[in-house]
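Project outcomes to date are best conveyed with an example. Our students and postdoctoral researchers have been running inverse folding experiments weekly, and each run begins with a structure described purely in tokens. The record below, which covers 462 residues, was selected by the lab manager from last quarter's runs and is presented without edits.
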């Protein structure tokens, strides 16, 4: 409410964050897992006199440096840009709470980037024991970035009762540790460690698949198999860790998973279920491909096989992150702030005074009235819906006339405790007049015969 609204037509702002985040997760988790892969592989190479391993590992280290140092870093900044635009209110809350945590994370990140460069450029130039030590410093630094960022990510889903009891009092930062070590901190951390280890193996398969199998059959066999082994622990532990994680998520959020299909036809239940199915199927396929192609005939394991495994891993990651986002709905910060930036505590005030007068980026003199409806949509619905694309209003409201739309909005405003919509949509806040204008606006969207809105009410960024 204190910031402009970011309109991303068709795709929706959430997906902008999503697309950058999926890319970033693939790389940043590899940075952590690969941080352990490289020194462990180097140690093995050194202890067993496997000179040829070193050449391949050096190539892998270069790939690693470019991927994490360039693409990982750039996509990380991309996340800041996109969350700052899509969820300025929540980003501000996170910064106010965790500024110290982030400052430390950036220190570790600096160490991580520096040691990654030193590790690659000193390969073969300094004493191998010292080189290995540089690798371990890298591993520790990158692991610590995960330890910190996990506290902030899990906080958004489960801030915990202690932090919530001071939320909005200005004393939030005094509960830093309680917020940081929140209820899903540990399962979240172990789950991500498992993902890091498997991604290290998957990216290593990309490098090792390029070893010439005809010229170096033994080298390729050893290295492909050794990399494939990195997938075993996570696949064994993943179901247990997922169970632990879900167990730590409050019942109200978990309910989304169990919400009956009957309540919302093509709705949320099937979306989460579909995502869960994709995770299970892609993971099983990865396991199959890695076992049959990489483990059983490593010499023939090709670059395109490795890319196929990588593509499956992207799908699994995307579905995992999507489910995590869905679990958090309708909040951006659990039980504290809705996805549209409205604080749970300010709903009564918005209902009494109106939403628009409290939204600073909406012109006070907005006219005509239709533009107010558009502003209501931008302020309260656009963080999850678009007009024509993702979760499109035209599609979801198709076939409803003005009265039906009005009933829906009233239901969204009054919210009975047992309404299934509560699990994923925030209450609609605002005065009766504002709700009527939102209805008119939506009616125009659905039925083009309704009078067209003119004028621009929202100082939105296009
Ligand atoms: C926190 C995200 C979020 C916000 C904010 C949000 N919605 Fe939704 N909405 C959803 C989700 C998720 C669904 C289910 C989507 C689906 O079935 O494809 C949904 C479904 C709907 C549906 C279809 C429901 C049905 O039973 O047919 C309508 C209509 C709708 N939303 C309107 C709105 C309006 C109007 C607003 C703003 C006042 C709004 N939503 C705000 C997440 C949100």
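After processing, the design step wrote out the following sequence:
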């Amino acid at each position: 409410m204190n910031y402009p609204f970011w309109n991303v037509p068709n795709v929706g702002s959430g997906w902008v964050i999503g697309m950058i985040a999926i890319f970033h997760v693939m790389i940043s988790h590899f940075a952590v897992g690969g941080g352990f892969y490289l020194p462990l592989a180097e140690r093995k190479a050194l202890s067993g006199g496997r000179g040829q391993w070193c050449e391949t590992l050096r190539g892998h280290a270069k790939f690693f440096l470019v991927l994490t140092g360039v693409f990982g870093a750039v996509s990380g900044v991309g996340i800041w840009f996109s969350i700052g635009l899509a969820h300025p209110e929540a980003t501000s809350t996170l910064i106010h709470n965790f500024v110290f945590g982030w400052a430390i994370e950036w220190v570790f990140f600096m160490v991580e980037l520096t040691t990654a460069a030193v590790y690659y450029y000193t390969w073969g130039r300094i004493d191998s024991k010292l080189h290995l030590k540089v690798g371990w410093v890298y591993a520790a630094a990158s692991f610590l970035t995960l330890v910190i960022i996990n506290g902030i990510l899990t906080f958004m889903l489960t801030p915990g009762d202690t932090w919530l009891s001071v939320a909005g009092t200005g004393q939030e930062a005094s509960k830093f540790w309680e917020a940081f070590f929140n209820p899903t901190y540990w399962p979240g951390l172990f789950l991500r460690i498992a993902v890091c280890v498997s991604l290290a193996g998957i990216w290593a398969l990309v490098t090792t698949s390029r070893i010439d199998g005809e010229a170096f059959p033994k080298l390729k066999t050893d290295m492909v198999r050794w990399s494939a082994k990195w997938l075993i622990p996570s696949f064994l532990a993943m179901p247990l860790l997922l169970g632990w994680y879900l167990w730590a998520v409050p019942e109200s959020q978990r309910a989304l998973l169990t919400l009956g299909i009957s309540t919302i036809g093509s709705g949320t239940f099937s979306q989460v279920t579909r995502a869960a199915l994709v995770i299970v199927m892609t993971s099983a396929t990865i396991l199959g491909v890695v076992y049959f192609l990489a483990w059983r005939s490593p010499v023939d394991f090709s670059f395109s096989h490795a890319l196929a495994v990588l593509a499956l891993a992207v799908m699994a990651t995307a579905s995992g992150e999507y489910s995590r986002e869905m679990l958090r709905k309708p909040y951006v910060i659990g039980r504290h702030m809705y996805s549209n930036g409205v604080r749970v505590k300010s709903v009564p005030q918005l209902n009494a005074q109106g939403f628009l007068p409290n939204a600073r980026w909406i012109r006070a003199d907005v006219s005509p009235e239709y533009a107010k409806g558009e502003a209501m949509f931008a302020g309260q619905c656009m963080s999850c819906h678009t007009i024509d694309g993702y979760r499109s209003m035209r599609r979801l409201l198709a076939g409803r006339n003005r009265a039906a739309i009005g009933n829906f909005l009233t239901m969204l405003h009054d919210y009975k405790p047992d309404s299934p919509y509560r699990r994923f949509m925030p209450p609609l806040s605002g005065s009766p007049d504002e709700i009527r204008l939102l209805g008119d606006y939506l009616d125009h969207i659905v039925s083009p015969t309704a009078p067209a809105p003119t004028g621009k009410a929202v100082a939105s960024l296009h």
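The two ends are 18 Å apart (CA to CA). Residues 286 and 309 are 6 Å apart (CA to CA). The training component of this project remains on track.
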